[in-house]
Amino acid sequence: MSLKLKAVTEPADPNPIGSAVKRETVDLGNGSDIVYIRRFLPSNQAWTWFHYLDKEIPWTRPTLRVFGRSCVQPRDTCYVASPGLPDLIYSGYQPPAYSWDDFPPLKEILDAVHKALPGSSFNSLLLNRYKGGNDYVGWHSDDEKLYGLTPEIASVSFGCEREFFLKKRPKGRKHVEEPASKRLKMSDHAAQHSFTLKHGSLLVMRGNTQRDWIHSVPKRAKVEAARINLTFRHVL
Ligand SMILES: O=C(O)CCC(=O)C(=O)O
Ligand SMILES: [Mn+2]
C-alpha cells in the first residue's frame, strides 16, 4: 500500500501569544477607554517570565520627593528604554535607562504586546515589583509630557493578582503619586472602575485616560506573594 502524503503548509506559529483571546473594552466616556485581556499570556509562559524577571532585573527602591517630603517608593522598580529618548523623571527621580538587549525576554513580551495592539510602537518600559501586600502604587496618572497628550499604556501582570482602581481625576490639582491612605470614597461610585489584574493579563489605558482619570494599586493586608508589572509606553 502506498501512502500519498499531501504537503500542508503550517503557519510558523499557529497560535501566537495573545491571538484569539477574549478582550473586554470599558468605555470611560469622553474619549477614554480601557481594554482588558484576561488570558493574554499562557500561564506557564507567564510563570517562566515571572521567575526570569524576579531574578535578573536589577530592581531598586528609589527615594522620591512627594509634596516636599522624601519617601521610599513603596515598590521595586526598573526602567528600560530605546536609545536616544529624553530622560524619564518622576517625583524628582531619574531612573537609569537599561537597554532591551540586556533582557531578551522583554523583547519577546514587547513583540506579543505589539501583535495584540496593531499600530502600537512602544519604546520604553517601566517595571514594578510588589513584594507583598504592603507594596502599592498610590493614586496618580501617567501624564508626563514626554508621552504626549493621549498616550496608550499597556500593562502586563505576572504573579500574585492585585486590584487596579481607576477614578475620575479630582478637579484643579496636578496629580503626583499620593499616600495609600487616600482611599476611594463610596459616594464616588459612578466614577470608579476596578479590575483584578490576573497573572498573564494585559490591561491597556487609551485616549484621554491619563488626562481625565487617575489609577492605583492599593495595599492589601492579606497578600503575601509577589507581583511583577510591566507598563509599556511610547516616548515621543
Ligand atoms: O502595577 C500596576 O498595575 C500599575 C503600575 C503603574 O500604574 C505605573 O507604573 O505607572
Ligand atoms: Mn501608572
TrEMBL record:
<dbReference type="Pfam" id="PF13532">
    <property type="entry name" value="2OG-FeII_Oxy_2"/>
</dbReference>
<feature type="binding site">
    <location>
        <position position="231"/>
    </location>
    <ligand>
        <name>2-oxoglutarate</name>
    </ligand>
</feature>
<feature type="binding site">
    <location>
        <position position="128"/>
    </location>
    <ligand>
        <name>2-oxoglutarate</name>
    </ligand>
</feature>
<comment type="similarity">
    <text>Belongs to the alkB family.</text>
</comment>
<dbReference type="GO" id="GO:0035516">
    <property type="term" value="F:broad specificity oxidative DNA demethylase activity"/>
</dbReference>
<feature type="binding site">
    <location>
        <position position="227"/>
    </location>
    <ligand>
        <name>2-oxoglutarate</name>
    </ligand>
</feature>
<dbReference type="InterPro" id="IPR032852">
    <property type="entry name" value="ALKBH2"/>
</dbReference>
<feature type="binding site">
    <location>
        <position position="233"/>
    </location>
    <ligand>
        <name>2-oxoglutarate</name>
    </ligand>
</feature>
<feature type="binding site">
    <location>
        <position position="130"/>
    </location>
    <ligand>
        <name>2-oxoglutarate</name>
    </ligand>
</feature>
<dbReference type="InterPro" id="IPR027450">
    <property type="entry name" value="AlkB-like"/>
</dbReference>
<dbReference type="InterPro" id="IPR005123">
    <property type="entry name" value="Oxoglu/Fe-dep_dioxygenase_dom"/>
</dbReference>
<feature type="binding site">
    <location>
        <begin position="67"/>
        <end position="69"/>
    </location>
    <ligand>
        <name>substrate</name>
    </ligand>
</feature>
<dbReference type="GO" id="GO:0051747">
    <property type="term" value="F:cytosine C-5 DNA demethylase activity"/>
</dbReference>
<dbReference type="GO" id="GO:0006307">
    <property type="term" value="P:DNA alkylation repair"/>
</dbReference>
<dbReference type="GO" id="GO:0008198">
    <property type="term" value="F:ferrous iron binding"/>
</dbReference>
<feature type="binding site">
    <location>
        <position position="140"/>
    </location>
    <ligand>
        <name>2-oxoglutarate</name>
    </ligand>
</feature>
<feature type="binding site">
    <location>
        <position position="143"/>
    </location>
    <ligand>
        <name>substrate</name>
    </ligand>
</feature>
<protein>
    <recommendedName>
        <fullName>Fe2OG dioxygenase domain-containing protein</fullName>
    </recommendedName>
</protein>
<feature type="binding site">
    <location>
        <position position="215"/>
    </location>
    <ligand>
        <name>2-oxoglutarate</name>
    </ligand>
</feature>
<feature type="domain" description="Fe2OG dioxygenase">
    <location>
        <begin position="121"/>
        <end position="236"/>
    </location>
</feature>
<dbReference type="InterPro" id="IPR037151">
    <property type="entry name" value="AlkB-like_sf"/>
</dbReference>
